[in-house]
Protein backbone atom coordinates (compact mmCIF):
# COMPACT_ATOMS: atom_id res chain seq x y z
CA UNK A 1 0.00 0.00 0.00
CA UNK A 2 1.35 3.45 -0.88
CA UNK A 3 2.26 5.49 2.18
CA UNK A 4 1.71 9.25 2.31
CA UNK A 5 5.15 10.28 3.56
CA UNK A 6 4.25 13.95 3.25
CA UNK A 7 1.60 13.76 5.94
CA UNK A 8 3.13 11.43 8.49
CA UNK A 9 6.38 11.24 10.41
CA UNK A 10 8.72 8.47 11.51
CA UNK A 11 9.30 10.46 14.72
CA UNK A 12 7.16 10.67 17.86
CA UNK A 13 4.47 13.38 17.87
CA UNK A 14 5.49 16.51 19.78
CA UNK A 15 9.20 15.67 19.55
CA UNK A 16 10.11 19.29 18.75
CA UNK A 17 7.28 21.13 20.52
CA UNK A 18 8.40 24.48 21.93
CA UNK A 19 11.37 24.72 19.54
CA UNK A 20 11.88 27.12 16.64
CA UNK A 21 13.71 26.66 13.33
CA UNK A 22 14.84 28.66 10.32
CA UNK A 23 14.91 26.81 6.97
CA UNK A 24 16.51 28.51 3.98
CA UNK A 25 15.04 27.55 0.62
CA UNK A 26 12.04 26.36 2.65
CA UNK A 27 9.44 27.23 0.01
CA UNK A 28 10.08 24.35 -2.40
CA UNK A 29 11.36 20.79 -2.74
CA UNK A 30 13.60 19.43 -0.01
CA UNK A 31 13.36 22.61 2.09
CA UNK A 32 9.59 22.50 2.06
CA UNK A 33 9.63 18.83 3.10
CA UNK A 34 11.98 19.73 5.98
CA UNK A 35 9.70 22.59 7.06
CA UNK A 36 6.67 20.30 6.92
CA UNK A 37 8.35 17.59 8.98
CA UNK A 38 9.46 20.11 11.62
CA UNK A 39 5.98 21.64 11.80
CA UNK A 40 4.42 18.17 12.08
CA UNK A 41 6.61 17.53 15.13
CA UNK A 42 5.46 20.76 16.80
CA UNK A 43 8.37 23.07 15.91
CA UNK A 44 7.70 26.68 14.88
CA UNK A 45 9.31 27.34 11.49
CA UNK A 46 10.47 30.37 9.52
CA UNK A 47 11.00 29.67 5.82
CA UNK A 48 13.10 32.06 3.75
CA UNK A 49 14.17 32.34 0.09
CA UNK A 50 14.39 34.93 -2.70
CA UNK A 51 10.93 34.53 -4.20
CA UNK A 52 7.97 35.90 -2.22
CA UNK A 53 5.67 34.10 -4.67
CA UNK A 54 7.15 30.68 -3.85
CA UNK A 55 7.12 31.48 -0.13
CA UNK A 56 3.47 32.57 -0.16
CA UNK A 57 2.40 29.40 -1.96
CA UNK A 58 4.36 27.25 0.50
CA UNK A 59 3.02 29.07 3.55
CA UNK A 60 -0.52 28.66 2.28
CA UNK A 61 0.01 24.90 1.78
CA UNK A 62 1.63 24.45 5.19
CA UNK A 63 -1.08 26.37 7.02
CA UNK A 64 -3.80 24.30 5.33
CA UNK A 65 -2.00 21.04 6.18
CA UNK A 66 -3.76 19.53 9.19
CA UNK A 67 -0.63 17.58 10.17
CA UNK A 68 1.36 20.79 10.74
CA UNK A 69 1.14 21.60 14.44
CA UNK A 70 3.75 24.34 14.79
CA UNK A 71 3.43 27.93 13.59
CA UNK A 72 4.82 28.82 10.16
CA UNK A 73 5.98 32.17 8.80
CA UNK A 74 7.97 33.34 5.78
CA UNK A 75 10.37 36.15 4.94
CA UNK A 76 12.08 36.94 1.63
CA UNK A 77 15.87 36.60 1.86
CA UNK A 78 18.71 36.19 -0.60
CA UNK A 79 21.35 34.22 1.30
CA UNK A 80 24.05 35.94 -0.77
CA UNK A 81 23.13 39.22 0.93
CA UNK A 82 24.59 39.82 4.39
CA UNK A 83 21.85 42.31 5.24
CA UNK A 84 19.09 39.91 4.15
CA UNK A 85 20.50 37.05 6.22
CA UNK A 86 20.93 39.27 9.28
CA UNK A 87 17.30 40.38 8.85
CA UNK A 88 16.05 36.81 8.35
CA UNK A 89 17.59 35.62 11.62
CA UNK A 90 16.35 38.73 13.45
CA UNK A 91 12.86 38.23 11.98
CA UNK A 92 12.76 34.59 13.09
CA UNK A 93 13.81 35.59 16.60
CA UNK A 94 11.30 38.40 16.78
CA UNK A 95 8.47 36.09 15.69
CA UNK A 96 9.18 33.07 17.90
CA UNK A 97 11.54 34.38 20.60
CA UNK A 98 14.11 31.62 20.08
CA UNK A 99 16.10 29.85 17.36
CA UNK A 100 16.97 26.28 18.24
CA UNK A 101 17.58 25.01 14.71
CA UNK A 102 19.03 26.33 11.46
CA UNK A 103 18.79 24.36 8.21
CA UNK A 104 20.93 25.72 5.37
CA UNK A 105 19.12 24.17 2.42
CA UNK A 106 18.75 27.11 0.02
CA UNK A 107 21.15 26.67 -2.87
CA UNK A 108 21.76 25.17 -6.24
CA UNK A 109 23.76 25.43 -9.41
CA UNK A 110 23.57 24.96 -13.16
CA UNK A 111 25.11 22.28 -15.37
CA UNK A 112 28.21 23.38 -17.25
CA UNK A 113 31.55 21.94 -18.33
CA UNK A 114 34.19 23.54 -16.12
CA UNK A 115 35.97 25.00 -19.15
CA UNK A 116 32.89 27.05 -20.02
CA UNK A 117 32.30 28.50 -16.54
CA UNK A 118 32.67 32.27 -16.28
CA UNK A 119 34.17 33.79 -13.14
CA UNK A 120 30.79 35.30 -12.39
CA UNK A 121 28.99 31.97 -12.82
CA UNK A 122 31.46 30.23 -10.51
CA UNK A 123 31.15 33.09 -8.01
CA UNK A 124 27.33 33.01 -8.08
CA UNK A 125 27.28 29.33 -7.14
CA UNK A 126 29.97 29.63 -4.47
CA UNK A 127 28.27 32.68 -2.96
CA UNK A 128 24.89 30.96 -2.92
CA UNK A 129 26.03 27.70 -1.38
CA UNK A 130 29.12 28.51 0.69
CA UNK A 131 28.96 32.20 1.58
CA UNK A 132 25.20 31.95 2.17
CA UNK A 133 25.69 29.03 4.55
CA UNK A 134 28.46 30.84 6.42
CA UNK A 135 26.41 34.01 6.80
CA UNK A 136 23.39 32.14 8.15
CA UNK A 137 25.53 30.12 10.58
CA UNK A 138 27.29 33.25 11.83
CA UNK A 139 24.07 35.20 12.32
CA UNK A 140 22.30 32.31 14.06
CA UNK A 141 25.30 31.93 16.36
CA UNK A 142 25.89 35.59 17.19
CA UNK A 143 22.22 36.53 17.51
CA UNK A 144 21.11 33.50 19.55
CA UNK A 145 22.99 30.18 19.65
CA UNK A 146 26.18 31.47 21.30
CA UNK A 147 24.15 32.06 24.48
CA UNK A 148 21.51 29.34 24.13
CA UNK A 149 22.99 26.50 22.11
CA UNK A 150 21.36 24.95 19.09
CA UNK A 151 21.73 22.60 16.15
CA UNK A 152 22.55 23.36 12.52
CA UNK A 153 22.25 21.13 9.45
CA UNK A 154 23.65 22.09 6.07
CA UNK A 155 22.37 20.41 2.93
CA UNK A 156 25.38 19.53 0.80
CA UNK A 157 25.57 16.98 -2.02
CA UNK A 158 27.05 13.56 -2.69
CA UNK A 159 30.30 14.65 -4.30
CA UNK A 160 33.22 13.09 -2.47
CA UNK A 161 34.67 12.07 -5.86
CA UNK A 162 34.03 15.51 -7.33
CA UNK A 163 31.05 16.45 -9.47
CA UNK A 164 31.88 16.63 -13.20
CA UNK A 165 29.82 19.36 -14.92
CA UNK A 166 28.97 20.86 -11.57
CA UNK A 167 32.55 21.63 -10.48
CA UNK A 168 31.53 24.99 -9.00
CA UNK A 169 28.90 23.38 -6.81
CA UNK A 170 31.12 20.45 -5.84
CA UNK A 171 33.80 22.88 -4.68
CA UNK A 172 31.31 24.97 -2.74
CA UNK A 173 29.73 21.96 -1.01
CA UNK A 174 33.16 20.59 -0.04
CA UNK A 175 33.75 24.02 1.49
CA UNK A 176 30.49 23.77 3.41
CA UNK A 177 31.52 20.43 4.92
CA UNK A 178 34.91 21.76 5.96
CA UNK A 179 33.25 24.88 7.38
CA UNK A 180 30.95 22.63 9.41
CA UNK A 181 33.93 20.76 10.84
CA UNK A 182 35.58 24.02 11.90
CA UNK A 183 32.42 25.43 13.46
CA UNK A 184 31.61 22.15 15.22
CA UNK A 185 34.85 22.54 17.16
CA UNK A 186 34.74 26.31 17.64
CA UNK A 187 31.14 26.37 18.82
CA UNK A 188 30.98 23.16 20.86
CA UNK A 189 31.53 25.15 24.05
CA UNK A 190 28.29 27.00 23.34
CA UNK A 191 26.36 23.74 23.00
CA UNK A 192 26.04 24.13 19.24
CA UNK A 193 26.18 21.06 16.99
CA UNK A 194 26.59 21.37 13.23
CA UNK A 195 26.31 18.58 10.67
CA UNK A 196 25.66 18.09 6.96
CA UNK A 197 23.22 15.95 5.03
CA UNK A 198 24.39 15.04 1.52
CA UNK A 199 21.53 14.03 -0.74
CA UNK A 200 22.21 11.82 -3.74
CA UNK A 201 19.79 12.39 -6.58
CA UNK A 202 16.44 13.36 -5.14
CA UNK A 203 13.51 14.00 -7.42
CA UNK A 204 11.96 17.38 -6.70
CA UNK A 205 9.90 18.96 -9.53
CA UNK A 206 11.15 22.43 -8.53
CA UNK A 207 14.78 21.34 -8.54
CA UNK A 208 14.67 19.53 -11.89
CA UNK A 209 12.79 22.39 -13.61
CA UNK A 210 16.03 24.29 -13.11
CA UNK A 211 17.79 22.02 -15.64
CA UNK A 212 15.26 22.31 -18.46
CA UNK A 213 15.83 19.85 -21.31
CA UNK A 214 18.99 18.46 -19.66
CA UNK A 215 17.01 17.07 -16.71
CA UNK A 216 15.33 14.09 -18.37
CA UNK A 217 18.39 12.55 -20.09
CA UNK A 218 20.19 12.93 -16.78
CA UNK A 219 17.43 11.10 -14.95
CA UNK A 220 17.45 8.28 -17.50
CA UNK A 221 21.19 7.87 -17.16
CA UNK A 222 21.50 8.17 -13.41
CA UNK A 223 18.63 6.04 -12.09
CA UNK A 224 20.20 2.67 -13.15
CA UNK A 225 23.49 3.77 -11.55
CA UNK A 226 21.97 4.06 -8.08
CA UNK A 227 22.35 0.80 -6.10
CA UNK A 228 18.76 1.18 -4.87
CA UNK A 229 17.62 1.63 -8.52
CA UNK A 230 15.52 4.64 -7.73
CA UNK A 231 15.90 8.29 -6.88
CA UNK A 232 15.33 9.60 -3.38
CA UNK A 233 12.39 11.58 -2.03
CA UNK A 234 12.49 14.94 -0.31
CA UNK A 235 10.93 13.30 2.75
CA UNK A 236 13.87 10.87 3.03
CA UNK A 237 16.23 13.84 3.26
CA UNK A 238 13.95 15.64 5.73
CA UNK A 239 13.90 12.60 8.00
CA UNK A 240 17.72 12.56 8.23
CA UNK A 241 17.76 16.31 8.92
CA UNK A 242 15.26 15.98 11.76
CA UNK A 243 17.25 13.19 13.37
CA UNK A 244 20.42 15.29 13.28
CA UNK A 245 18.58 18.26 14.80
CA UNK A 246 16.97 16.13 17.51
CA UNK A 247 18.38 15.30 20.92
CA UNK A 248 18.81 11.73 19.63
CA UNK A 249 21.89 13.02 17.78
CA UNK A 250 23.29 14.85 20.83
CA UNK A 251 26.75 13.26 20.42
CA UNK A 252 27.01 13.84 16.67
CA UNK A 253 28.77 16.95 15.38
CA UNK A 254 30.97 17.90 12.43
CA UNK A 255 29.73 14.95 10.34
CA UNK A 256 28.17 14.44 6.91
CA UNK A 257 25.39 11.89 6.44
CA UNK A 258 24.76 10.70 2.86
CA UNK A 259 21.14 10.05 1.93
CA UNK A 260 21.76 8.62 -1.49
CA UNK A 261 20.55 5.04 -1.93
CA UNK A 262 24.21 3.98 -2.03
CA UNK A 263 25.22 6.22 -4.96
CA UNK A 264 28.35 7.50 -3.21
CA UNK A 265 29.62 3.92 -2.93
CA UNK A 266 29.73 3.34 -6.66
CA UNK A 267 30.91 6.49 -8.37
CA UNK A 268 29.84 9.77 -9.85
CA UNK A 269 26.33 11.18 -10.12
CA UNK A 270 27.14 11.88 -13.77
CA UNK A 271 27.91 8.73 -15.78
CA UNK A 272 31.53 8.81 -16.94
CA UNK A 273 30.43 8.57 -20.57
CA UNK A 274 29.07 12.06 -20.15
CA UNK A 275 32.52 13.53 -19.48
CA UNK A 276 33.82 13.10 -23.03
CA UNK A 277 36.34 11.11 -25.09
CA UNK A 278 39.31 9.62 -23.24
CA UNK A 279 41.60 8.69 -26.14
CA UNK A 280 43.91 11.61 -25.31
CA UNK A 281 44.71 10.24 -21.84
CA UNK A 282 48.43 9.32 -21.74
CA UNK A 283 49.84 5.82 -21.20
CA UNK A 284 53.19 4.96 -19.56
CA UNK A 285 54.64 1.62 -20.66
CA UNK A 286 53.47 -0.64 -23.43
CA UNK A 287 49.92 0.36 -24.38
CA UNK A 288 49.86 -2.50 -26.90
CA UNK A 289 49.51 -5.06 -24.08
CA UNK A 290 46.09 -3.67 -23.19
CA UNK A 291 43.43 -5.75 -24.96
CA UNK A 292 40.70 -3.75 -26.73
CA UNK A 293 38.25 -4.30 -23.86
CA UNK A 294 40.78 -2.77 -21.42
CA UNK A 295 41.04 0.50 -23.33
CA UNK A 296 37.87 2.07 -24.73
C1 LIG B 1 20.31 17.26 -13.25
C2 LIG B 1 21.43 17.13 -12.26
C3 LIG B 1 20.96 17.06 -10.83
C4 LIG B 1 22.09 16.78 -9.91
C5 LIG B 1 21.67 16.83 -8.49
C6 LIG B 1 21.47 18.19 -7.98
C7 LIG B 1 20.24 18.66 -7.87
C8 LIG B 1 19.99 20.00 -7.32
O1 LIG B 1 20.81 20.68 -6.76
S1 LIG B 1 18.41 20.49 -7.53
C9 LIG B 1 18.40 22.21 -7.06
C10 LIG B 1 18.26 23.01 -8.24
N1 LIG B 1 17.85 24.35 -7.89
C11 LIG B 1 18.63 25.37 -8.12
O2 LIG B 1 19.76 25.25 -8.59
C12 LIG B 1 18.03 26.69 -7.81
C13 LIG B 1 19.02 27.75 -7.51
N2 LIG B 1 19.96 28.03 -8.60
C14 LIG B 1 20.15 29.28 -9.06
O3 LIG B 1 19.49 30.20 -8.65
C15 LIG B 1 21.24 29.49 -10.09
O4 LIG B 1 21.68 28.30 -10.63
C16 LIG B 1 22.46 30.28 -9.52
C17 LIG B 1 23.02 29.57 -8.30
C18 LIG B 1 23.54 30.43 -10.56
C19 LIG B 1 22.09 31.67 -9.13
O5 LIG B 1 21.51 32.33 -10.22
P1 LIG B 1 21.50 33.90 -10.36
O6 LIG B 1 21.88 34.62 -9.15
O7 LIG B 1 20.16 34.22 -10.90
O8 LIG B 1 22.63 34.08 -11.36
P2 LIG B 1 22.79 35.22 -12.41
O9 LIG B 1 21.67 35.19 -13.37
O10 LIG B 1 23.07 36.48 -11.68
O11 LIG B 1 24.08 34.72 -13.16
C20 LIG B 1 25.33 34.74 -12.53
C21 LIG B 1 26.32 34.07 -13.47
O12 LIG B 1 25.97 32.69 -13.58
C22 LIG B 1 25.77 32.35 -14.96
N3 LIG B 1 24.71 31.39 -15.11
C23 LIG B 1 23.54 31.35 -14.43
N4 LIG B 1 22.79 30.33 -14.86
C24 LIG B 1 23.49 29.71 -15.85
C25 LIG B 1 23.24 28.58 -16.69
N5 LIG B 1 22.11 27.88 -16.60
N6 LIG B 1 24.20 28.22 -17.57
C26 LIG B 1 25.36 28.90 -17.67
N7 LIG B 1 25.65 30.00 -16.90
C27 LIG B 1 24.72 30.39 -16.02
C28 LIG B 1 25.34 33.66 -15.62
O13 LIG B 1 25.56 33.65 -17.01
C29 LIG B 1 26.21 34.67 -14.88
O14 LIG B 1 27.51 34.67 -15.40
P3 LIG B 1 27.99 35.82 -16.45
O15 LIG B 1 27.13 35.65 -17.66
O16 LIG B 1 29.42 35.52 -16.71
O17 LIG B 1 27.76 37.14 -15.76
N1 LIG C 1 17.37 17.46 -5.65
C1 LIG C 1 18.58 16.88 -5.62
O1 LIG C 1 18.83 15.85 -6.26
C2 LIG C 1 19.66 17.48 -4.81
C3 LIG C 1 19.54 18.70 -4.20
N2 LIG C 1 20.57 19.21 -3.47
C4 LIG C 1 20.46 20.50 -2.82
O2 LIG C 1 19.35 20.51 -1.96
C5 LIG C 1 18.83 21.84 -1.85
C6 LIG C 1 17.37 21.86 -2.20
O3 LIG C 1 17.21 21.42 -3.56
P1 LIG C 1 15.81 21.04 -4.20
O4 LIG C 1 14.74 21.14 -3.19
O5 LIG C 1 15.98 19.78 -4.95
O6 LIG C 1 15.65 22.17 -5.32
P2 LIG C 1 14.87 23.57 -5.30
O7 LIG C 1 15.28 24.28 -6.53
O8 LIG C 1 13.41 23.31 -5.07
O9 LIG C 1 15.44 24.26 -4.01
C7 LIG C 1 16.37 25.29 -3.99
C8 LIG C 1 15.83 26.31 -3.01
O10 LIG C 1 16.85 27.24 -2.70
C9 LIG C 1 16.31 28.54 -2.75
N3 LIG C 1 17.39 29.44 -3.11
C10 LIG C 1 18.18 29.39 -4.22
N4 LIG C 1 19.04 30.41 -4.22
C11 LIG C 1 18.79 31.12 -3.09
C12 LIG C 1 19.34 32.30 -2.55
N5 LIG C 1 20.32 32.97 -3.17
N6 LIG C 1 18.85 32.76 -1.37
C13 LIG C 1 17.85 32.10 -0.73
N7 LIG C 1 17.29 30.98 -1.20
C14 LIG C 1 17.76 30.49 -2.38
C15 LIG C 1 15.20 28.47 -3.80
O11 LIG C 1 14.17 29.43 -3.57
P3 LIG C 1 14.13 30.86 -4.34
O12 LIG C 1 14.24 30.56 -5.80
O13 LIG C 1 12.83 31.43 -3.91
O14 LIG C 1 15.29 31.63 -3.82
C16 LIG C 1 14.64 27.08 -3.56
O15 LIG C 1 13.62 27.12 -2.59
C17 LIG C 1 19.69 22.70 -2.80
O16 LIG C 1 20.77 23.27 -2.08
C18 LIG C 1 20.17 21.65 -3.77
O17 LIG C 1 21.28 22.07 -4.51
C19 LIG C 1 21.74 18.52 -3.28
C20 LIG C 1 21.90 17.30 -3.85
C21 LIG C 1 20.90 16.70 -4.71
Automatic annotation (TrEMBL):
Taxonomic superkingdom: Eukaryota
Recorded metabolic or biological pathway in which this protein acts: Lipid metabolism
The reaction(s) this protein catalyses: (2E)-hexenoyl-CoA + NADPH + H(+) = hexanoyl-CoA + NADP(+); (2E)-decenoyl-CoA + NADPH + H(+) = decanoyl-CoA + NADP(+); a (2E)-enoyl-CoA + NADPH + H(+) = a 2,3-saturated acyl-CoA + NADP(+); (2E)-octenoyl-CoA + NADPH + H(+) = octanoyl-CoA + NADP(+)
GO biological process: fatty acid biosynthetic process; phytol metabolic process
InterPro entries hit by this protein: NAD(P)-bd_dom_sf, Peroxisomal_t2-enoyl-CoA_red, SDR_fam
Entry's Gene Ontology molecular function annotations: trans-2-enoyl-CoA reductase (NADPH) activity
Record-linked Pfam families: adh_short_C2 (PF13561)
Keywords: Fatty acid biosynthesis, Fatty acid metabolism, Lipid biosynthesis, Lipid metabolism, NADP, Oxidoreductase, Peroxisome, Phosphoprotein
GO CC term, one of those recorded: peroxisome
Cell compartment(s), UniProt: Peroxisome
Main location: other
EC number: 1.3.1.38
Subunit structure: Interacts with PEX5, probably required to target it into peroxisomes.
Function of the molecule: Participates in chain elongation of fatty acids. Catalyzes the reduction of trans-2-enoyl-CoAs of varying chain lengths from 6:1 to 16:1, having maximum activity with 10:1 CoA. Has no 2,4-dienoyl-CoA reductase activity.
Name of the featured protein: Peroxisomal trans-2-enoyl-CoA reductase
Organism: Diacronema lutheri
Source lineage: Eukaryota, Haptista, Haptophyta, Pavlovophyceae, Pavlovales
Amino acid sequence: MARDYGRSSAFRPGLLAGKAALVTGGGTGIGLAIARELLTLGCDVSIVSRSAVKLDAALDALRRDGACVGRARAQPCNVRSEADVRGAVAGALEAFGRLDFLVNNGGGQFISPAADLSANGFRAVVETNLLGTFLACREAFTQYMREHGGAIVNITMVNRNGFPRMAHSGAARAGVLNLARSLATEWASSGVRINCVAPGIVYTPSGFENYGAMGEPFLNAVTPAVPCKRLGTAEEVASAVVWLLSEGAAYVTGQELSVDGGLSLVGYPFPLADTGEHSAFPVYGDAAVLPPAARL
